[in-house]
């Protein structure tokens, strides 16, 4: 049975797309068939997987407008066992398209329900709680929240958790927070340590033990159209995402 996970945070710049790309790559590397859905109009996940702009059709926007799944939208990536439904700037118009559709919160759910033969579908959500994010959460079994180690982190994630609870109550009874992953952690910085302590004290076991460090290789990888794990598998960032994938599978007992 396919497990659908949204990677979401309404705050930008927290490592959401980086987490989507590298977690999808890590899961596929341990013999899972994975689909990455780029639901962010910026299309950064598509760029980070090396998909040229002109090769992104049919994109998620086309699927939303037509309200049906098209097998041609499944694009193979350079990573074995990892496909992507890409995004381009047209996706920004989907918020308007969705606003006038009946049962508008379930459009992505209906599309993904027709996709088979994947162990995981990861959705890279936009950094806003608009209709694209709501659609993604309604379609998902769970949510992973990347959380940057900074002063305002707790304030933002508390708001997101409240929104997830509203979606659970109104549209998707099975939705749960899979976990919170701390990103851009600098062990030399006392503020990072304080934020991590606050987050763990507030949210407890829902926070993953694995943290993602600040790492130059992670930042460089997208400009080469590769996940960090392909760009430099031995860097600290790559090893952290491999550890995160292992922790997610071990927590859920989802080994094949």
Helix-strand blueprint:
Blueprint lengths: L2 E5 L8 H14 L4 E5 L5 H5 L11 H7 L8 E2 L5 E4 L8 H6 L7 H6 L7 E5 L6 H9 L2 E7 L4 H18 L5 E8 L6 H14 L12 H5 L7 H4 L4 H17 L4
Parallel strand pairs: 1-5, 1-6, 2-4, 2-5, 6-7
Antiparallel strand pairs: 3-4
Q: Would you summarize the structure shown here?
A:
With 256 residues, this protein is α/β, with parallel strands linked by helices. The chain is built from 11 helices and 7 strands. A hairpin with a 5-residue loop joins strand 3 and strand 4 (82-85).
Task: Describe this structure as you would to a colleague.
This protein has 256 residues and is an alpha/beta fold. α1 packs across α11. The model has no long low-confidence stretch (mean pLDDT 92). β6, α7 and β7 form a beta-alpha-beta unit. It contains eleven helices and seven strands. It has one domain: Rossmann fold (3-Layer(aba) Sandwich), CATH 3.40.50. 41% of the residues lie in helices and 14% in strands. The N and C termini lie close together (11 Å). It is globular.
- Stated plainly, the CATH topology is called Rossmann fold
Output the helix-strand order: EHEHHEEHHEHEHEHHHH
Q: What is the mean pLDDT?
A: 92
Identify the overall geometry: globular
Structural class computed from helices and strand pairing: alpha/beta
Number of strands: 7
CATH-level-2 architecture: 3-Layer(aba) Sandwich
Ends distance: 11 Å
Q: What's the assembly state of these chains?
A: single chain
Largest sheet: 7 strands, mixed
- Spatial strand order of the main sheet: 3-4-2-5-1-6-7
CATH top level assignment: Alpha Beta
Contiguous helical run count: 11
Strand % is 5-15%
How helical, in percent, are the residues?
40-55%
**Low-confidence spans: pLDDT under 50, at least 5 residues?**
none
Q: What radius of gyration results from the CA coordinates? A: 17 Å
What's the CATH H-level homologous superfamily? P-loop containing nucleotide triphosphate hydrolases
